[in-house]
């Protein structure tokens, strides 16, 4: 059974380069940095329109096309890291 809910925020990302990251600081390509978008976004079998996953072995695909995180989950992060509490949210 899939739980009902409301989408509070939607974030999409494209490939960017993280310099000085990865093995020996050689840099890595990632789509980890997702930015908020407004309005309807199409959902396809392999992901959201306009979103990118770099490492398809672990991200994206038919079983991992959309990732949802509950708003209630941020409460624990805020409690554990109070100095960063303002940064935890959708």
Report on the architecture of this protein.
β5 (43-44) and β6 form a beta hairpin. The chain is mainly β. The chain starts with 10 loop residues before the first strand and ends in a 10-residue tail after the last helix. The protein has one helix at residues 73-80, and strands at residues 11-12, 16-18, 28-30, 35-36, 43-44, 47-48. It has a two-stranded antiparallel ribbon.
Order of helices and strands: EEEEEEH
> What separation lies between the terminal Cα atoms?
24 Å
- Strand-pairing-aware structural class: mainly beta
Helical stretch tally: 1
Radius of gyration: 15 Å
**Major sheet strand order:** 1-4
* Helical content (DSSP H or I, runs of 4+): under 10%
Beta fraction: 15-25%
Overall pLDDT confidence? 86
Oligomer: single chain
The biggest sheet amounts to: 2 strands, antiparallel
Count of extended strands: 6
Q: Point out poorly predicted stretches.
A: none
Write down the overall geometry: globular
